[in-house]
Hints:
By secondary structure, the protein is mostly beta strands. The chain has helices spanning 85-89, 102-105, 268-271; strands spanning 2-14, 20-33, 38-48, 54-66, 72-79, 120-131, 138-146, 150-153, 162-164, 177-189, 192-204, 212-224, 228-240, 246-247, 250-259, 273-283, 290-301, 306-317, 326-334.
Amino acid sequence: MVVAGSASVLYNREEGKNGSFLLGQFAPILLFRANDKVLLESELEFGLNSDGSTDTELEYAQLDYAFDDYLSFVGGKFLLPLGTFPEKLHPAWINKMPTLPLVYTGVGQMMHDTGIVPFSDIGAQALGGVHIGQRDAVFTYAGYLVNGAYDFEHSDDTGKDQFSFEKGNDYLNGSPSGGGRVAVFYPWSPYHDVEVGFSGQIGTWDKNNELSWSAMVGDAALHLGPYTEVRGEYVHTWGETPDKGTLEPEGAFAQVAYKLAGLQLDLPLISNFEAVFRYDYLDRDVTGSRTHGYALGLNYYVTNTLLLKGAYEFIDSSNAPYDHNRLTFQVAYGF
């Protein structure tokens, strides 16, 4: 039995508003190895809402069964392999910015509850990987069936059309959504590698199983030595509606991070810093709501898993309430 996880505290100040400590999160991960083939894992997330109340969420709870070196089975509630951010990069001590990309949070939000694609769902998944020929390249794959999207919420006046993913969707179990991801990872020398992936999901969201929701995600990551990382994702979704045709929300982010240790300065304090730049784009395809974000971040690594992060985001949005810049600081710890 192993207990791992993360904890974080975030301070946010938006342009024209008073600053405040918005989020305090504690997310323990419980891992139980039953035998060589069976692993049980779950993550609970305890957070503080903007109104001061406490929110408890089951991030995932799954059973993993390893058939062999090339194929594993996952059942339960799991993080979806739509791109790489939800499954691998969203924990605060791994994410290089204090905030999440707009495609996973929505405009003006700080947590992953109003993005245009789901973080997790309930169902079954098969995944694995194989080496390509005699080279070091690896082909990875994942395929899953889950409950899928549900409940189209809309307002003709406010333009808050959006799909929901993680509540009240048990009535769709008879018509699950299907999806998966394929990717190629190639390391050509130590600390130098590239990965390119493609993922998607399709299914229906309404009670009559007549209206479809689907998503396509392309992702790429590049490491140029131990100090430089470049990554990005593009997300495009399609959602049929009973009154507005097919909506096509889309978004993307691109991020560059550079550890100042690469400057080879004999200054330990400076070498612990990392500079980060992220570009965000989100188009909800409702009432012309489009947002562009440009974030400049600076991280300080107290240890490999204890980070002090700060960022200033320039946000340009056609949605007036969210058209303002913001300053964020975060302390994040992984254990």
